[in-house]
Amino acid sequence: MSICSLNPGEKGIISSINGDTKLVKRLFALGCIEGTEVELRRTAPLGDPIIINFRGFDLAIRKKDAKNILLKKL
């Protein structure tokens, strides 16, 4: 399942990150790596972007990029 499948307030553990190399490197640099717990905080009124929280900070990310973050639901 991707992070987009979560409802606000739900959490999951990152199992893999797919997509282009630039996106993967950017997320890795921010600490968004396999095994990290992530929470969907909220979705913008029109559905894009979404705000996720991991390692103590919030990150706004486009929905098309968030679909590449695969999770195991907690």
UniProtKB/TrEMBL annotation:
Keyword rRNA-binding in annotation: no
Cited Pfam families: FeoA
Positions of the Ferrous iron transporter FeoA-like domain: 1-73
Entry keywords, A to Z: Iron
SMART domains in UniProt: FeoA (SM00899)
GO molecular function: transition metal ion binding
Domain of life: Bacteria
PANTHER family documented for this protein: FE(2+) TRANSPORT PROTEIN A
Protein name: Ferrous iron transport protein A
Record organism: Clostridium chromiireducens
